[in-house]
Amino acid sequence: MARVVVDVMLKPEILDPQGQAIVGACDRLGFKGVAQVRQGKRFEVEVDGEVDDAKLADVRRLAETLLANPVIEDFELRVE
Amino acid sequence: MARVVVDVMLKPEILDPQGQAIVGACDRLGFKGVAQVRQGKRFEVEVDGEVDDAKLADVRRLAETLLANPVIEDFELRVE
Q1: Would the pLDDT of A39 be above 90?
Q2: The domain that contains B30 carries what CATH number?
């Protein structure tokens, strides 16, 4: 069993109102020095057996079609 | 400007219906070999200046109070 982590973040040019709300809350709660926050998603995908190139390509296709919206989001894969 | 990444995941003993729904969708879409998926959140926190121990402690407090629910979620900090 191996784990592939898929990090999905909004593209830099897409507004992130959730992140902006967190920055506003930081100010109100007294956390100084927080310039920007962006919120995204993290998926931990457990795959059977070892992660070879074919498995990784499968997870990439999975991320493109199911986990991320490639119009507004970027994603990164990481084997852990 | 430095970036601290906060990964927030449900604790292992907490059910993750979103992850289970993704596993079900994998089956229907023909992605074989996906045993388990857990969905969490990823926050990219940009802080002013360098990240020293005090800043990191601030971000940890921020994660505990605002970004994660410590009753059901674990979080990890990573300086990038």
Answers
A1: yes
A2: 3.30.1280.10
What are the CA-CA distances from residue B30 to residues A12, A25, A32, A61 (Å)? 32, 42, 48, 11
Question: Strand order of the sheet with strand B34-47?
Answer: A73-79, A2-10, A34-47, B34-47, B2-10, B73-79
At A2-33, the pLDDT tens digits run: 999 999 999 999 999 999 999 999 999 999 88
Which residues of chain B carry a pLDDT beneath 70? none
How many separate domains does chain A show?
1
User: Domain range for residue A24?
Assistant: 2-79
CA distance B13 to chain A (A): 15
Q: Which residues on chain B are in Cβ contact (under 8 Å) with A49?
A: 33
Q: In chain B, which residues have their Cβ closer than 8 Å to the Cβ of A38?
A: 43-44
Find where tokens 């089956």 sit. Answer: B27
For B70, the token pair is 């410590």
